[in-house]
Design brief:
The radius of gyration is 20 Å and the shape is elongated. The longest helix is centred in the first third of the chain and has 24 residues. The chain is 68% helix and 0% strand. The chain is an all-alpha fold and 174 residues long.
Length: 174
Amino acid sequence: MAYWFSIFAVIAVLTFYAAYLYSTARSSPSHLISCMEVNVRWSAWTCEQVLRHASFSKGELNELNRSAGARLPVSIADAQKAEEMLVLFLAKGVDINAPDERLKRWTALHAAAISGEPGETALLLKLGAKIDIRDADGKTPLDLARLAQEKQPDNSRAAETTRLLEKAQFKSGS
């Protein structure tokens, strides 16, 4: 009896996981990124594997590029995983410099700059984000970082973000 119960339990678990995997594979890239951050370990691992091995449809890729999709992987808390996922997104066709059509035409670098996120800013610069792209108001990421630093002069993260962008601008000769 215990043998058959064990077999049944294994089949039930595998069936449940197959159904979960099927529904996860149909999720959007943004959902998969958030799943990696907030779900329990096995579920987060599944979302990461789906993201790593699935290709983006033309529709998903267009949506990512219309909404500055490079922001998604950069926001992952684990810096190494954020870099891995950003490299993966870029390899799948996401444009690191794509502006968000709904949010002042901010690129991922604009968003990192205004948020005062030096880790995100450094990663984006390392992987080729342009510092001279202007948003709908004519502001560059450096302009936004300086604005954020003015509003919070004691915020060391905002100051570091500004410093990184100033250094990048100096290197580029802009």
